[in-house]
Fold this protein.
Amino acid sequence: MSEYRIGFAGMTHLGINSAAAAADRNFDVVCFDPDPQLVAALGRGELPVVEPDLPEILKKNEQRIRFSSDPKALASCDLVYVAPDVPTDDNGQSDLARIDALIREVDAAMRVDAVMVVLSQVPPGFTRARARPGRLLHYQVETLIFGRAIERARLPERFIVGCAEPTQPLPAALAHFLGSFGCPILPMRYESAELAKISINMCLVASVGVANTMAELCEKTGADWSEIVPALKLDRRIGQYSYLSPGLGIAGGNLERDLATVLTLSERHGTDGGIVSAWAANSRHRKDWAWAVLESLVLAENPGARIAVLGLAYKEDTHSTKNSPSLALLAHLKGRNVVVYDPVVSPDAAGVPFAAAAGAMEAVDGADVVCIMTPWEQFKKLPPQHLAGRMRGRWLIDPYRVIDARAARDAGLRRVTLGVAPEGN
């Protein structure tokens, strides 16, 4: 057990996964949230988020973790991370009210010599505006990914730390904690760290934009984007870890927030944000890909078609539906004959007014078309022959290539996916 005790305030996705990773590094951890019902549920092992391996990591380290709804519990901590998820609206604008309230509550409860670190994503200038004499305050960039959050929290590539004076050594508690992970630590001024996070996401958006733009051309010219990707990943200037999978627009909330932030800053300071506007426009254009395919290939001939939609979460291994492509598709299908299924997200929770099936195959029964809108692992195991046997029609809209192309073709299914022209056309 380390001599330092680490606190985390805000038990949403970011706080819970970060706290679990700290405990897994043998630190004594205090987890605070002002919601007593949430804290009670966490104490019973009931998690408000879905992440692979997170329940197991928490169980393994339960003796090191204490949950509390009393901010005074943080008084025993040497280092406290303020780590609530920051919600965004439909325009990608952040609501900073909750994190501001939490910072004030935590600041009042912490020891004078303890270090506060803002871990939530905030706009440039946020951290410096909250600094005050007598409080050691830092900002740290989080790079968690829905569906891989605990892996990213336990095995970070590097730490980016915003400081009032980046030339000065980090406080002992923070330096010891970050050093325990054995990766590079990059101190910089507050604003640089805040913009570093946004810069990372801009690079990801750029890669997604290239993939979406070129995949759409593949769909029209007879090329196959999946054949091109390996060539790009073998180019060292692009690399094997690049975001080169085409998708249905940008989803999840974080990338949209950063696009909105850069556009706001560009307008405020008179800089050119045209490329960011283009990325946002490309995202909006591709978000309706599934609807355009469904309308042109199926509903134009059969307006009363029975439609099975598999998946509501915006991606696999998460409960989040923020800007979900599935919900974007379902918004076009009101009044249609639709049945939905997701292994984690209930239609009621997602606000989806359609019939719900108890399982994937039940949803497929009698369907004229099946739309696989979330690439859940269990959907990858659906045998195409069984799908074809349960369906009435033969159309399979599979943007993420969940079902093997040859197996789908052998089963008599007409599969449509991103980055290649529809089969049979």
Summary: The longest helix spans residues 190-221. The CA atoms of residues 175 and 256 lie 32 Å apart.
